[in-house]
Design brief:
The protein is an alpha+beta fold and about 210 residues long. It is built from six helices and seven strands, in the order E-E-H-E-E-E-H-H-H-E-E-H-H. The protein has three domains: about 80 residues, Roll (Ubiquitin-like (UB roll)); about 45 residues, no CATH class; about 60 residues. Strand 1 and strand 2 form a beta hairpin.
Amino acid sequence: MSTGKISLTIDDRQVETKEGTTVLEAAKSVGITIPTLCNHEGLEPYGACRLCTVEVEAQGRTSLVASCVYPVEQNLIVRTRSEDIDEIRKTILEMLLAHAPGAPALEEYGKEYGADPASFEKEPSFCILCGLCVRYCAEVKKANAIAFADQGPTRQINFIPEIASKECWKCKECFPLCPTSYLQAAYFLTEGLSFPPHSASEDGEGE
Ligand code: SF4
Ligand code: FES
């Protein structure tokens, strides 16, 4: 019978945790930091950016996995840094910097992993599709004022004007979650094009 307790090794440290914990959470519980861009403690894991890639070894097999979505296993061996892992993170950051040049969160990680922002041709879309805004609005605020539109290279986030005009002016809690400057710009563009800015005298607030 399963006791729900899991023992694993992360960077040569013995870690005890509960079944269902992710490798990212287990590492954090013993003070080991793994870089993340699309993860948020209050949201369901998403596994979009792959920056949290680590190496796991189980039953003699080694693989690279996204630690934010990978559940702990009995006797798993995890390595959070190695030449291969650092190279993967460097390449991910170089690709993301081509989409969101100058984004402070990316530049900071970029320095840590030696990413060259000139490695990939610039294709500034300024959104790295981490989904934090979309998921926060849906899961925490239950408002669904932001959604992904399209698939593939044209995938982007959109504010839904009918909902955003009612919900966003009093919230904006997603703004600080965005690792780039795109979210605020997209909101103010939607506001400018689709609905008038909300004034404090509307809806009777302040009365
Ligand atoms: S707008 Fe920002 S928070 Fe939303 S998906 Fe794009 S990068 Fe992520
Ligand atoms: S933090 Fe794990 S995939 Fe983004």
